[in-house]
């Protein structure tokens, strides 16, 4: 076994009401003063969470406004290399830390992102919810009612521990699905771990990924369980993934029913040649990385097929995609980057890749997961 030494970042409650342990510090705060604080705000986020990017900008403003009383730390469960790569492109002046095992997410029942918790110096929870909803007026009110302060590094403790096990993901069969203790998110977390593709999310999110459709096209009532699907790299082809969808649903006691609907769609014509697609050398996030990074206006992808690329576009736009010439779908992997916020720019970006697209009305399939 390989010994891994991590820095533990502990948020200690002096009253015992709140205690958090962070695995690694990525960034110090550039805005908060070093003086004792009366308020501490933990911002739960992820690099793939589009609303989190907007919230981070807002929290930067909040932190700058309350340098003396408030200390904000942004907390994610992702790997250090993923977080640091993201912060190179989306700079923040907030403190940033990592919770590798997700203990704080579980302890505070964080089921959706972004999410935030405000503590006073005694560790009492004063407020929790979407960070976008906490206002300067509220912060000012909490500060006026919570005068007691504590040194930042009495409240935020650092110590070392030794982890004797190196965490690995192994798979003895072509695919496997298991329950996962993770918060519910707007998008599934799709990562590549060596030769295994990992998809974490709700059952509709996982089925949507396998069928290459928007999550909005998949319906399941009264099941909020989160899962992790693992797929061998050499099993990652669209027709096999559809088989996987039906197999895992059957194993979980579900069936998949379909219904044709009419509505707004994005019609796609793929080029016969892939020469305009980006090759795999344009983006390199290493062997253990997310397949997609999404921000408020564009998304990037490292080594994915055109099928996965269009799936992600459909999911972000919440719009069904109809590929008119499926014979031009290839399993070859490429790198991608696309602006999606503005329709004209998105269509222009697709055209540059040789992909002709138009927003129109048409038929699409809705999927219903039922017992």
UniProtKB/TrEMBL annotation:
Position of the signal peptide: 1-18
Q: Which GO terms describe its molecular function?
A: oxidoreductase activity
SUPFAM superfamilies with a match to the protein in the record: Thioredoxin-like
Q: Which CDD domains match?
A: TlpA_like_family
| Domain (Thioredoxin) ranges | 1-148
Q: Name the InterPro entries on file.
A: Redoxin (IPR013740), Thioredoxin-like_sf (IPR036249), Thioredoxin_CS (IPR017937), Thioredoxin_domain (IPR013766), Thioredoxin_ResA/DsbE_sf (IPR050553)
Where in the cell is the protein located? Cell envelope
Predominantly, its location class is other
Write out the GO cellular component annotations: cell envelope
Print the keywords alphabetically.
Cytochrome c-type biogenesis, Redox-active center, Signal
Which Pfam families does the UniProt record give? Redoxin
User: One GO BP annotation here?
Assistant: cytochrome complex assembly
- In Swiss-Prot or TrEMBL terms, this protein is called Thiol-disulfide oxidoreductase resA
Species whose genome carries this gene: Capnocytophaga cynodegmi
């Amino acid at each position: 076994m390989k010994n891994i030494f991590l820095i533990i970042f502990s948020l200690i409650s002096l009253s015992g009401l709140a205690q958090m342990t962070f695995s690694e510090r990525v960034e110090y705060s550039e805005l908060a003063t070093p003086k004792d604080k009366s308020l501490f705000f933990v911002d739960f986020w992820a690099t793939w969470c589009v609303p989190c990017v907007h919230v981070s900008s807002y929290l930067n403003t909040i932190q700058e406004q309350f340098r003396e009383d408030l200390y904000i730390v942004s907390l994610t469960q992702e790997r250090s290399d993923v977080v640091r790569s993201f912060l190179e492109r989306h700079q923040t002046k907030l403190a940033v830390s990592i919770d590798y095992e997700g203990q704080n997410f579980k302890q505070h029942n964080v089921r959706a992102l972004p999410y935030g918790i405000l503590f006073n110096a005694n560790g009492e929870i004063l407020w929790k919810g979407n960070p976008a909803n906490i206002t300067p007026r509220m912060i000012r009110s909490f500060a006026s009612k919570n005068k007691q302060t504590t040194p930042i590094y009495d409240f935020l403790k650092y110590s070392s521990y030794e982890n004797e096990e190196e965490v690995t993901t192994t798979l003895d069969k072509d695919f496997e699905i298991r329950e996962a203790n993770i918060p519910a998110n707007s998008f599934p977390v799709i990562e590549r771990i060596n030769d295994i593709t990992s998809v974490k999310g709700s059952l509709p999110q996982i089925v949507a990924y396998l069928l290459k459709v928007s999550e909005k096209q998949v319906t399941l009532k009264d099941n909020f369980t989160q899962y992790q699907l693992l797929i061998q790299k050499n099993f990652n082809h669209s027709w096999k993934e559809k088989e996987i969808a039906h197999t895992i649903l059957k194993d979980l006691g579900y069936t998949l029913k379909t219904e044709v609907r009419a509505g707004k769609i994005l019609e796609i014509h793929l080029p016969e040649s892939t020469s305009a697609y980006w090759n795999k050398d344009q983006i390199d996030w290493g062997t253990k990385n997310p397949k997609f990074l999404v921000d408020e206006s564009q998304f990037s992808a490292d080594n994915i097929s055109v099928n996965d690329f269009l799936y992600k576009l459909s999911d972000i736009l919440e719009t069904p995609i109809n590929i008119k010439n499926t014979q031009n779908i290839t399993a070859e992997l490429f790198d991608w980057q696309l602006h999606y916020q503005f329709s004209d720019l998105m269509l222009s970006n697709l055209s540059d890749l040789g992909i002709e697209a138009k927003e129109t009305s048409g038929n699409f399939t809705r999927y219903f997961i039922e017992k």
